[in-house]
Every structure is written in structure tokens, then in C-alpha cells.
Amino acid sequence: MSAAGESGRAQQMRAKAQDLEQAAERATDPQERQRLKDKARQLKEQSEQAGGTGKPDIDPMV
């Protein structure tokens, strides 16, 4: 997969994670709320691995 494709996929995953977080805020069932929050967290982690966070890498040694 190309770098642009990976970045696009990561962006889609982050958008889906945000949708899940919003759904969790609206959920009235505590178990459903937690399930949605967990899924959102997983997607965020996967998006970071797939395409980064969109933030430039910063060398802490500089």
C-alpha cells in the first residue's frame, strides 16, 4: 500500500473513532458506552500505527 493510501486509511480510522466516541457520549447504557469507548481507543491506536497521528516526528535529543 502506498504512503498516501496508508495515511488516508489512518485518517478514516481516526474519523470512525471520533464517531464512536460521540456515540459513547450519547449512550445511556453503561456497558454500551464502555464498549464504544474501548472500540474508539482501539481504532485510534491502530490509526497511529497505520499512518501516524499527522504530527511531525520530533527528536527529543535535539
Structure explained in plain terms:
There is one protein chain. By secondary structure, the chain is mainly alpha-helical. It has one domain. The protein is 74% helix and 0% strand. It contains 2 helices and no strands. Helix 1 runs antiparallel to helix 2. The longest helix has 24 residues. The N and C termini lie far apart (32 Å). The model has no long low-confidence stretch (mean pLDDT 83). Pfam families: DUF6381. This is Small hydrophilic protein. It comes from Streptomyces antnestii.
Layout of helices and strands:
Blueprint: H1 3-26, H2 30-51
Helix pairs in contact: 1-2
Q: How many separate domains?
A: 1
How many helices does DSSP assign?
2
Q: Report the biggest beta sheet as strand number plus sense, adding barrel if it closes.
A: none
**Which structural category do the helix and sheet elements fall into?**
mainly alpha
Report the span from N to C terminus.
32 Å
Helix content: over 70%
Average per-residue pLDDT, rounded, comes to 83
Low-pLDDT runs: none
Can you tell me the overall shape?
elongated
Radius of gyration: 14 Å
What features would you highlight for this structure?
62 residues, mainly alpha
